[in-house]
TrEMBL record:
PANTHER family: GLUTATHIONE S-TRANSFERASE KAPPA (PTHR13887), THIOREDOXIN SUPERFAMILY PROTEIN (PTHR13887:SF41)
Pfam families, per the entry: DSBA
The protein's name: DsbA family oxidoreductase
Occurrences of domain DSBA-like thioredoxin (ranges): 3-204
Region (Disordered): 215-245
Gene3D superfamilies per UniProt: Glutaredoxin (3.40.30.10)
Family matches, as InterPro entries: DSBA-like_thioredoxin_dom, Thioredoxin-like_sf
Amino acid sequence: MRVEIWADIACPWCYIGKARFEKGLAGFAHRGEVEIVHRSFELDPEAAPAAGTPVLEMLAQKYGVSREQAEAMEARVAEAAAGEGLGYRSDRMHGNTFDLHRLLHLAKERGAQDALLGALYRANFAEARALGDEDVLTEVAVAAGLDEGDVRRVLADPDAYAEAVRADEREAAELGARSVPFFVIDRRYGISGGQPAEVFRQALERAWEEGGAAVPGGEGIAPEDDAAAPGCEGDVCRPGTGAGN
């Protein structure tokens, strides 16, 4: 069984959803026969690279709210993260994630994709590290198991793995995925959002046992509502921003 997960490192519900999915997978009897593939999705491809913008400042500007309101938006997501035992800081930066996705494709070739994704999530959300800084990003990638020379060569070449990222994004569009996280089981079932762990466990079990049946929390691979507003609400993030709820 293959589970493909479209996500963005800037997406708090992708961070939370990864933890919930892993809990659901841990309760699945055939977990050893599940291949996990992480796919690229950019929520804010026009975001500034490098230093980026403080998340609270971005939220206030994006939604025309006060600093206090932006803090309240982030607090709701922080509470959900804490419920999964995850750290969550609102003093992080919001920036372009294209280079991070390129490194995830390098990591896939090296058998370290899941380790790197987890490290990037922790660095961004739990530690508020400046992933737009090449040295910081390299340090995180090396700690996750990548070779420093390989990492720096990819970061120095803007074309390295760029097409792989774009291919993932095209596939997301073809599948009708316009928010993340988006989970696809064997290209038959789609589950949108950072669902509870039990939803994922049940979905895996039913997909294993009943080919063609509907799965909990999803309605197959079907397009989402184009009228939905950008941003993060419920348990998904849509293009336009990668910050809190």
